[in-house]
Design brief:
Elements lengths: L3 H14 L8 H19 L4 H27 L10 H24 L4
Helix pairs in contact: 1-2, 2-3, 3-4
């Protein structure tokens, strides 16, 4: 079974890799491919504004998360939470995840548009 990553993300990343100016920017290529994949996922549900906006929101969340994790790996520390105890970081992360997801699902529902 194939999924959006097989049909959209991988071919887009490969296509972007063909641009000489992007050769030095793998993270930019990755984020552009993530954006396009999740935007298409939103459109896949229908060309209604709420579906497109929710796809864009998930794309934004995913790109922010991608940049965040890469920066944490580079600096070998948590760049957002710093030295906060790991158990508090988990609770804060769960709180943020729940609320950001609930917001995106609210947009997806179309109740606010």
């Amino acid at each position: 079974m194939h999924h959006l990553p097989d049909y959209v993300f991988k071919p887009t990343y490969k296509w972007l890799s063909g641009f000489q100016k992007l050769k030095k920017y793998p993270i930019t290529k990755q984020n552009l491919a993530i954006f396009l994949t999740l935007f298409i996922m939103g459109c896949w549900n229908g060309f209604e504004p709420q579906y497109i906006y929710s796809g864009l929101i998930y794309a934004l969340y995913s790109i922010i998360h991608n940049i965040y994790t890469i920066q944490c790996r580079k600096k070998q520390k948590d760049v957002l939470f710093g030295t906060i105890d790991i158990k508090y970081t988990r609770y804060i992360s769960l709180f943020l995840l729940f609320n950001f997801t609930a917001f995106a699902l609210y947009i997806f529902s179309g109740r606010c548009l």
